[in-house]
UniProtKB/TrEMBL annotation:
Pfam families: Amidohydro_1
Single GO term (MF): hydrolase activity
Keyword Mitochondrion: no
InterPro entries associated with the record: Amidohydro-rel, Metal_Hydrolase, MTA/SAH_deaminase
Protein name, entry field: Amidohydrolase
Annotated Amidohydrolase-related domain residues: 46-322
Keywords, alphabetical: Hydrolase
Source domain of life: Archaea
Amino acid sequence: MRLLAIRSKYALVGEELELVEEVELVWEGGRLVDWYPTTKKVSDLLVMPALVNAHTHLADCYFPDAWLRESLSEIVDPSKGLKRKALEEADIKEAIKMGMEALRSTGSFAAADFREGGAKGLKEALEAREEGYLPFGRVEKEEDLEEVLRLAHGLGLPEPDFPTPDLARRAAEAFKAAGKPVGLHLAEVRKEPVQKALDLGADFVVHGCFLEYEDLEELKRNGVALVVCPRSNRWFGLKPKVKEAIEVGVKLLLGSDNCTFNKPDLWRDLEASAFELRSEGAFDDEAARELLKAVTTNAEKPLGLPWKTALVEGSRWPALLMDSKLLALDRSKNKYATIVKRGGPEALVGVVGKAKLNRPWSSAGWR
């Protein structure tokens, strides 16, 4: 089977995203088989894992920048919000395709998408047949449970008691029994007891703007991850708990959230998170590394991903080729911080996956 090798100036390898320099990485049949230091000429590249968007609503790509002045509850209330009617009239298949194309163009190759509309909404989304699309369905009525369980990658509740406490509990039990992940919005616009998420066996909670330190400690003790959506939260005047999550050590993930208001570009959420940390005197190179883990290696277990998302032996997860010269990594005093603050689709020059280069790039450094 044909080998594909890249000699790069930098790479982020392993679960902890260790930054190594002057390295050669070798793929065979789409699988990373080895990496090691090299003394041969290297290219001006940073090789890193592709990104994972841990929370999206991609169908909302169909109506960008609607409702600029309305409140969050007016827009997204699951029973009577403005978005509910708009989704009924949207081409869901087309919206999912648009969203996934936008994600891939920025280096994200998986999206945990909270899909509205019960079984019908899942069927519409899955018609797009998009690789890396991971729908987290919701059970909106009793007779939907079995079909939602069959179709969805995981359960994605808009609130802990949706649509009723009993049906939410039974849906969560069914998904856990099937080995599928459970996630839910929690404490986004008001304080809610974290015990509600624990009772449902949640693998992750989304937003958590009103969680206190003791709540985050409880999530950490129970192995529940926190997905923060910094741009979305700030759009609606809410404070994302990035600093608190890093301080406590709860597993942190990032999502771009609602595609109506936010381009699904995790580089923007990385930079927004850096601004949050800087404003609270908490941004340094180690915090930047934690942010990069939040969009790569941290996502694997909570989201139930079928791929190993770190650059480790045996991984089939795509690798991003970033222009290290454009990122100014050679001159950087804090390289993780530089990747967070200066990374973006303009620096993405290629993607390695399935033993091929998916975007054109110079052949220098290839074997």
